[in-house]
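[job 0412] stage=complex_fold ligand=FE2/S2 (inorganic) cluster status=START
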Amino acid sequence: MTESLPLTTVPIELVVNGRRRAISVAAHHTLLEVLRDGLGLTGTKECCLVGECGACTVLVNGMSVDSCLMLAVEADGASITTVEGLADGDGLSPLQQAFLDHGAAQCGFCIPGQLMAATELLVRTPHPSRADVEEGLAGNLCRCGGYEQIIEAVLAAAEGQERSAGRAAPTSDRADPAAQPDAEVAPQ
Ligand code: FES
Ligand code: FES
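[job 0412] stage=complex_fold status=DONE, emitting structure tokens
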């Protein structure tokens, strides 16, 4: 007869899309599992689970990360941005709008990951060349083959960003975590 071991949970704190979250997570759970199943942020997609497709890309302290490869406990204390954090209220972010305008989403499954990788790229390289965009999104696969539209959308967003430089705040750091209340989330 096999005895099941008690589930070990670990308390962690994250700032997710500007909101502080206090969570107890299973030690073996990935950041992806906690975002989707614990916090209900299902915009981040689950696909290969081995770091090959980029569907699960989120920003951790501003860096794009495959959340399927990171344990939630490793993210303790970090600021996380998911695709749900890109929009400004009910409005799309300029990058999201550019994806829409260029028909970059076909089935849409890869788009959250593409948007997060592109968000990091545009912060790191505000005036990217086409080669920069191709390299920046190299870890994000699109099974619909919509790469051309995605690249055009990112380049258009960069142009728009350039035109409005000095007027718009970076989307990834828009929210002030200190202004948001703590939230308790049930253990996973
Ligand atoms: S689901 Fe994480 S890289 Fe594919
Ligand atoms: S739009 Fe379908 S996988 Fe990219």
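The pocket of FE2/S2 (inorganic) cluster (ligand 2) is lined by residues 105-111, 142-144, 146 (CB under 6 Å).
[job 0412] exit 0
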